[in-house]
Write a structure and sequence with these properties.
The chain has 409 residues and is mainly alpha-helical. The chain has helices at residues 4-28, 32-37, 46-55, 58-61, 85-106, 115-128, 137-146, 175-184, 186-195, 207-216, 228-237, 240-243, 268-277, 279-288, 300-310, 320-329, 333-336, 358-378, 390-399, 402-405; strands spanning 63-64, 67-68, 154-155, 158-159. The chain is elongated. It binds heme C (HEC) (4 copies).
Length: 409
């Protein structure tokens, strides 16, 4: 066992190096193929997306997790956290006519969005869904006693004196920062708990968030971003990869696989709760392997989680045959032709050498949708709406070579 570790680490090192090369390769390759074929999320920055959300005027109408305009639905956590990117694209697609009407009424300029910008906006909106609701301070107070925090900590002077007064410590003003501080101090806290014969607490569901609400009594909105690219760096720098794989492989590392196979909870703070709950076992494994307990600074933990959650973005796929039917069920064929080969009304969508992705579909919506909408009204047909399950099939159809199905009908 002890001899095996360095070898494992070396193998991992090689894998990590390969992954870094691949990753940075993907980032610098500007070829159209990479841009349009690969899902955007590894390279799209949610942080830039959050800036675009302001710059492009989305925030004039929409809020995200309570911050922003009130003229249109909140696009943050009120949406199902486990929803996929196609769900987001489809929501945008289906609501587009109302959105355009609203833009006309509000005299908001129609935003021009490039492929990269749409990718960033989607990455932002996707990550924003994992932010926490404001916690329940009353419940937090009960938990503070029930979990034994009160034996060591006070809140506004009420409670124990072994640890700091939690209302007063600085720099923990969001549930994420709070989670990170607890992690950073978990080793010392654990030692103190052993002294007073307290078991290390478990953090289920919303407990961490509610504890935070009680201790801090603030409802500062959580910055719902996170930089997955930096998160990947943290993952490597803090040796998470020595014990956790993120690939779909059976690699015998000591910690559970943190890749797509792990079902992650809806919010980042809950995920932090999971990490904290396992802190003693992880700490033991770290000691055995001579790895220092990671200390996080700045937004490290949020970035790390943004990275781990970004592994769950999957580009929808499906059947080109079903997609062809969807294309006519939804009425796209009325303008684009039966096989999407184009007609007098609308351009060809297939066989143009461009790979469609959920991002390019959304980009097309912003770029061409308002004209599509006008044409559909002129034809007396309703706006062609899509359902979430359509996207993968539709993309597969649009990406299929023209020869295989043209002339079939
Ligand atoms: C002038 C106001 C306005 C602006 C600006 C605006 N929207 Fe909208 N948006 C709306 C309205 C209205 C709806 C439709 C609500 C409905 O159908 O009930 C909507 C719907 C949506 C939906 C679907 C939400 C759902 O119901 O699930 C998404 C996603 C969306 N907008 C994204 C954006 C993005 C991204 C931007 C900026 C590039 C933007 N919107 C700019 C008004 C606006
Ligand atoms: C046995 C005593 C003990 C218990 C029980 C305990 N803590 Fe602590 N806690 C400490 C000590 C001591 C520190 C400071 C550790 C250090 O200096 O690294 C600390 C640090 C912290 C910090 C970081 C403060 C900072 O400076 O950023 C947070 C947050 C925290 N504890 C929350 C909690 C919560 C929530 C609970 C209950 C689930 C809890 N603690 C239970 C002793 C305890
Ligand atoms: C020395 C090995 C080691 C290192 C380094 C390590 N972990 Fe772990 N981790 C473990 C082990 C072992 C468990 C399982 C603990 C248990 O069984 O309770 C675990 C559990 C977890 C869990 C809970 C997963 C679940 O399914 O419940 C998360 C999340 C996690 N680790 C994240 C991280 C992150 C993020 C890092 C880097 C900052 C990290 N770990 C570093 C060994 C490690
Ligand atoms: C009423 C006619 C009409 C219908 C129905 C229609 N479209 Fe379009 N579509 C157009 C027109 C016209 C354009 C070109 C608009 C422009 O040039 O600005 C277009 C452009 C597009 C583009 C962008 C093409 C490019 O050049 O990048 C895509 C993608 C697209 N449509 C997909 C669809 C899908 C998917 C459906 C069905 C859900 C659909 N369209 C239904 C008329 C229509």
């Amino acid at each position: 066992m002890r001899l095996e570790v360095p070898r494992r680490l070396m193998i991992w090192g090689a894998i990590a190096l390969g992954a870094v090369l691949l990753f940075s390769g993907a980032l610098v390759t500007q070829s159209r193929r990479v841009r349009t074929r690969s899902p955007m999320f590894l390279s799209a920055s949610p942080i830039q997306g959050s800036q675009l959300f302001q710059v492009k005027g989305c925030s004039r109408c929409h809020s995200v997790n309570g911050t922003g305009g009130k003229l249109a639905p909140d696009l943050g956590r009120s949406q199902a956290a486990e929803a996929s990117v196609s769900q987001l694209v489809v929501a945008m697609w289906n609501h587009a006519p109302q959105m355009w009407e609203r833009m006309r009424v509000e005299k908001v300029e129609y935003p021009a969005l490039s492929y990269e910008e749409v990718a960033q906006l989607l990455a932002y909106l996707y990550i924003a869904r994992h932010a926490d609701e404001p916690g329940d301070a009353v419940r937090g107070k009960q938990l503070f006693a029930a979990k034994g925090c009160i034996r060591c900590h006070s809140v506004h002077g009420q409670g124990g004196r072994i640890g700091p007064d939690l209302a007063e410590v600085s720099g923990v003003d969001t549930p994420m920062a709070w989670t990170q501080a607890m992690w950073n101090h978990s080793d010392a806290m654990q030692a103190r708990m052993r002294e007073v014969k307290l078991d290390w607490p478990q953090f289920d569901n919303y407990e961490l968030r509610d504890l935070f609400a009680y201790a801090r009594q603030v409802s500062k909105p959580q910055i719902a971003a996170g930089d997955p690219q930096h998160g990947w760096k943290v993952f490597q720098k803090q040796s998470c990869n020595a014990c956790h794989s993120i690939k779909d492989e059976d690699d015998q590392r000591v910690g559970p696989n943190l890749g797509r196979s792990l079902k992650v909870p809806p919010t980042f703070t809950q995920f932090g709760g999971l990490m904290l709950t396992h802190a003693p076992q992880m700490g033991r494994a770290m000691k055995e392997h001579g790895i220092e307990r990671p200390q996080f600074a700045g937004e490290d933990m949020a970035d790390l989680f943004a990275f781990l959650y970004s592994l769950r973005y999957v580009e929808p796929s499906g059947s080109p045959h079903v997609g062809e039917s969807v294309f006519s069920w939804r009425g796209c064929n009325r303008c684009h032709g039966e096989s999407a080969q184009g007609s007098v009304r609308a351009p060809a969508l297939r066989g143009r050498g461009t790979g469609y992705t959920s991002v390019s579909l959304a980009t097309a919506l912003w770029a061409h949708g308002s004209r599509m909408y006008r044409e559909s009204r002129a034809l007396g047909m309703g706006w062609p709406t899509l359902s979430e399950g359509d996207v993968g099939d539709l993309l597969a159809f649009l990406n299929s070579p023209v020869q295989t199905s043209s002339g079939k009908k």
